[in-house]
Amino acid sequence: MSASASRTGLPLAVERAATLWAMAGGALLLLVVAINVASVIGGLFGKPFAGDFELTEVGTAVAVFAFLPFVQITDANVSADIFTQRAPVRLVAAFGLLAALVAMAFALLLGWRMYLGMLDQKSYDYTTAIVQFPHWIAFLPILASIALLALCAAVTAAERLARIAAPGH
């Protein structure tokens, strides 16, 4: 049985939030594609979409961060299973615990630094060149993604710890 199938309560709520957040990131990515298609078609008629490159840059960054919590909670990170396919369940769980703790530490460190970066972007009124989109605004959903990533890492760490402690493994 997968971890997802056995989740209830807060872990299930975190998983559902990560899934919805990733779907929102996917919708944003579709919007970015639509803007680019509109710009290319408009360019054929001498009227490209002004600022398409800037919006692609910002939209893609926000979307990529939106996918990170889903990847963590579904255990879809890249791994070299060939080295652990015959290892005991507890050892694999210990590696999973270590990976979840590293993900959580990374999320907390990244969240702290991105928050400070957002404050800098806001204090300097840094905007994109053409559409004058304030950069700091893009940090808000990115910071939400990072916070959700930390929650997902905490859930997966707790699940790996329970697997290590489970009798009979």
UniProtKB/TrEMBL annotation:
- Give the location in the cell: Cell inner membrane; Cell membrane
What's a Gene Ontology MF term here? transmembrane transporter activity
- Transmembrane parts of this sequence: 20-46, 58-79, 91-115, 135-158
Species of origin reads Profundibacterium mesophilum KAUST100406-0324
Q: Subunit arrangement?
A: The complex comprises the extracytoplasmic solute receptor protein and the two transmembrane proteins.
Membership in a protein family: Belongs to the TRAP transporter small permease family.
The residues forming the signal peptide are none
- Keywords, A to Z? Cell inner membrane, Cell membrane, Membrane, Transmembrane, Transmembrane helix, Transport
State the protein's purpose: Part of the tripartite ATP-independent periplasmic (TRAP) transport system.
Q: What is this protein called?
A: TRAP transporter small permease protein
Cellular compartments per GO CC: plasma membrane
Where does the Tripartite ATP-independent periplasmic transporters DctQ component domain lie? 41-162
